[in-house]
Amino acid sequence: MPATPDPTPSALPDDEDLIAVARVAQENAYSPYSKVCVGAALVAADGRVFTGCNVENASLGLTQCAERAALSRAVAEGVRRFSAVVITSSFDDPLMPCGACRQVLREFAADLRVVSVGMGGGRRESSLRELLPEAFEPGDLRGGSR
Questions:
Q1: CB 94 within 8 A of CB 122
Q2: Catalytic one among 16, 67, 125, 130?
Q3: Which of 62, 80, 88, 89 is the most buried (most CB within 10 A)?
Q4: How high is the pLDDT of residue 144?
Q5: For domain 9-142, which architecture applies?
Q6: Strands ordered across the beta sheet of 123-127
Q7: Residue partners of 26: CB distance under 8 A and separation at least 6
Q8: 56 part of the active site
Q9: Can you point out the beta strands (E) in 8-109?
Q10: 0.85 surpassed by pTM
Q11: Residue 55 — very low, low, confident or very high, per pLDDT cuts 50/70/90?
């Protein structure tokens, strides 16, 4: 079966639609400890959107962030290429991905566009490469050079 070509940029969801989708996911967050609710909308290269929300645990180290929840959902569906992630939270100011999320997302999309929107309407945008320069990459396991 021939591969489906990537859509043109105009076929990709716009930021406002992605913010709305992430806000819906945010409403499902399970955050009884931090009280911070986060939603994510991860855009695959083919235009599909995968959502996630944070899921806390009493053993805080086992908490799942929204970004990684969305990525896990996408990978379970066989998707490995991504173009953007939009993150919303219950904070007034935009909340950028934590270090663990940056590293996990980097495995699949070094040039991922990252957009974060706070409840107060503030917005930050960056690339994952800017947020995590000199990331640990698969080639590092082989002792490869950059």
A1: yes
A2: 67
A3: 88
A4: 56
A5: 3-Layer(aba) Sandwich (3.40)
A6: 49-53, 38-44, 82-89, 113-117, 123-127
A7: 37, 38, 39, 53, 66, 88, 89, 90
A8: no
A9: 38-44, 49-53, 82-89
A10: yes
A11: very high
Give me 43's structure tokens. 């855009």
Cα separation, 144 vs 146, whole angstroms? 7
- Is the CB of residue 8 less than 8 Å from the CB of residue 37? no
Beta bridge partners of 30: 55
Domains of the chain, residue spans: 9-142
pLDDT tens profile 108-117: 999 999 999 9
Picking from 28, 16, 23, 22, the residue whose alpha carbon sits closest to that of residue 42 is: 22
| Amino acid at position 19, single letter | I
pLDDT reading at 2 higher than 90: no
